[in-house]
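Final report, closing paragraph on structural work. Over the funding period we assembled a curated collection of sequence-structure pairs, and we close with a single example.
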Amino acid sequence: MKKEYSVVGTRIAGLDEKDKVLGNVIFADDFTLPGMLHGKVFRSTKASARIKRLDVSKAQELPGVVCVLSAEDVPNNESVKNVVGQTTEVGLLEAKHQVLARGRVRYWGEAIALVAAESLDIARDALKLIEVEYEELPAVFDPFEAMKPDAPKIHGNNNVIASWKLRKGDVEKGFAQADVVVENTYRTPRQEHAHIEPESGVAWVDDMGVINVRYAAQVIEHYRDIATVLGVPESRVRVIGTLIGGGFGGKEDVTVEVFLALMARKTGRPVKLTFTREEMGYARHKRHPYVLKYKTGATKEGKLVALEAQIVSDAGAYVYLSPWVLIYSTVHSTGPYLIPNVKVDANSVLTNNIMTSAFRGFGGMQVVAAYEAQMDDLAEKLGMDPLELRRKNFLKKGDVTASYQEITSEVWLEKCAQAALDALGQKSKGGKIKKVGRGLACAWQSYGRMTYLHDTSNCWVNLEMDGSAVVRTGIPDLGGGQRESVRAIAAEVLGLNIEEIHVISTDSQVTPLSGTVTATRALYMSGNATKLAAENVKKVITGKASEILSVAPEKLDLKDHTVYVVDDPKKRIPLVDAIKQCYFEGKIPQSLATFRAPFTEPISSDVIKDPVFPDFTFGAQAAEVEVDIETGEVKVLKWATAYDIGQAINVNRVEGQMEGGVAQGLGFGLMEDYLEVDGVPWTWNFHDYIIPTSKDVPDIKSIVLESGSGKGPFGAKGIGEPAISAAGPAAANAVKDAIGVRVTHLPVTAERIFFALR
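Its predicted structure, as stored:
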């Protein structure tokens, strides 16, 4: 029987909803300081070249220009170590990224110099006065060409920066048992994060000599990167996070913060830097494009017997998080299915394209496009219903995956898939020209960072004298309601109304460090830390109340500002009485708690054969589309998404994540395609890069299932990233159902449909 909660699992109004609607939120770019300078970045217009000459003298002499910085002005130009894992040591590899290009550039748009001036117009004019002379170098833009021994080397002696494998059973024997084999090669696109808010911030040096950087960040722990680059103690850098107008991984890696700190320290004045929409388009990382060659075998009864896959991702010009993204792809490459014989080889390769890194779904998304297309095509060959084929092969609790990890939580895939299909209702009628099709896609996605990273999160909770509470947590609010979640958790444990909880977040020198808002880890990590801290505070209160009521502490609970005996609710005392007595005796009801995720040993081999993630979220999405077979145009008619999220903390936010995941995933599957030609970006603005609008997204039916089996607080599972993974493949399968032809290159655009039909 599902446990009922007072606050958890309800629909909680957002702290910032009204202000966001009214435009009252002070986002990063809205913040100003007296005497503030404006920064701009001078960037490369070559994809691979040696910098023969860089002359900034004319820019420096322009009236109103306060400083021009190049690589020679950066104390430590290569950021070599970031302890929280962004642009850093990954498995067997240490990743380095140049702050400003020294000697050569490796992609079109790479930062070469910084300008700080009295006005934005002057800073823009100064960029035009910077003179640079290039000697073009050989370049490579195709990852398969880049893997060849004689290919131009982007860094070092090998363009292959990561290789991971899965090995389970005997694939050759497995395929010998197969009655049906499906083999295809799939391609997925680069994808732009397309968040509304640009990367932006303001930096200043305070009267204590501390470098303050206030900016939109998914990772406030980047203060350590700033300190490394500037060569100062970490205690001399403070990062203050803001409410974020979208990130999706685009604000996970270092963006403006190091540039800002360099200019503020050099000038001694506040400096603002905001990327333009163009810079967001061509100078910031994207989702990795993948090539996925899949071969899947099944018996005539529909049991999967073998999977062989080769996966190649384009990392672009710098390593960033590509090796980690590839680990996620490799582990998730089998789909949420039990397959006895598996052989997967995955490689991530450097090219002279724009770098690729974190994006919602983090490598788990691209592989869904392959394994779910394979499932539909297998079902077609077998003459079997697509859900029935999946039902025969779904993972179950207790199963061991191809990466040798036991599934320890519930796997409600059948419930999710059936619920999503049922929610579509009666199928719409098509015609001779406009064909209607339906598609289903099931997916699994980890939540929480990889266990060998030894992830931790901290939270501080304090009860005030009047019974209200303060929660301090470093976790940024990415728009997913991270602050509301910890608020609800503290309120539930302490028996308070949610309005009585105040959350202070996102300040590296004021709030306990809580880690990144990435990897669908925020609720899992910070939520559990908050619950631990609140429970510690509760113990202090019930311990004191037990003395007053002469009842054992474990027989007491907190609700409605009272401490009461569970078996005799009339026997109670006001909460404030217990609090005041605690304060009087010096037993302050406060706690700093640390939640530690499961720890495992580092990955020591390229064959993944140990548990990698804490747990997985399972779900399904179903789509109905109408395809014009004369033009290839696709119209999405209906959509349903269903996930087991363990336990909803805030139902509003869960549904918001699910709906947002559909919209973004639909773009990945049908519309969005970031194009580069010989390293030159072609689709870096929203005129050429097409994203879904309200006219493209249908009404979405979000079905929230709760098994209570997750590793998060109160049995919750993460939903932020899982919500996107199945969307694009569901749309692609619906198109295949409508037209009878598989388009293997995402996005499934009108043009690709048109030519596939002919």
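Residues 80-93 have pLDDT under 50 and may be disordered. Residues 31-137+199-274 form a domain with the Aldehyde Oxidoreductase; domain 3 fold (CATH 3.90.1170.50). We thank the funder for supporting this effort.
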